[in-house]
Specification:
The complex is a heterodimer of chains A (112) and B (112).
Chain A: E1 4-7, E2 10-14, E3 19-25, E4 31-37, E5 43-50, E6 55-58, E7 61-65, E8 71-76, E9 85-92, E10 101-102, E11 106-111
Parallel strand pairs in A: 2-11
Antiparallel strand pairs in A: 1-3, 3-8, 4-5, 4-9, 6-7, 7-8, 9-10, 9-11
Chain B: E1 5-7, E2 10-13, E3 19-24, E4 31-37, E5 44-50, E6 53-57, E7 64-68, E8 74-78, E9 87-94, E10 102-103, E11 107-111
Classes of the chains: A mainly beta (112), B mainly beta (112).
Chain lengths: 112, 112
Amino acid sequence: ELKVEQNPLFLSMQEGKNYTIYCNCSTTSDRLYWYRQDPGKSLESLFVLLSNGAVKQEGRLMASLDTKARLSTLHITAAVHDLSATYFCAVDKSNSGYALNFGKGTSLLVTP
Amino acid sequence: DAGVTQSPTHLIKTRGQQVTLRCSPKSGHDTVSWYQQALGQGPQFIFQYYEEEERQRGNFPDRFSGHQFPNYSSELNVNALLLGDSALYLCASSLLGGSGYTFGSGTRLTVV
């Protein structure tokens, strides 16, 4: 069974600071996803990472996946208040029918 | 182009009742997956439908059932509702095996 662990679960950071969220998978996966969720809202796709160690960047967010495809990081650069949200990583695998397995999420609060 | 549409947006039911939630997938998508997200938790996979058949199921009791129609839309049915079924129910559509999941806005179910 694919298990996904995120840490930290809660993160309060000041605007302008850098920080990293970690996502660890119990086994290798085919794909790893990062989603953003605002309170009471649905999931917004941020990144899809394949098992080849790709790195993707969008604005102040950069996601990477190690070559063993078991550890991913979501790095936040110079945080701004608009980044406050809950961030989930999820993985899927062909032999589990491509069902997404989610972590518990990281609740991020960016303060002035 | 409409994304994933879910209805209703909110629902209040009494313990023991039955509920039906509906999902219209993004145009061009043929696969629908349902997820349950309890408050403060990550989404949990319920099941996935493709070609009108359930092809993958998560760890949910038989009280949870579904259906997919020829137009790819889907329903999630929950019988004998329990207080613990209170959650945000998310529908995600994709192409079978594809990595482009699109999530709907969800249905907030409250069981009293």
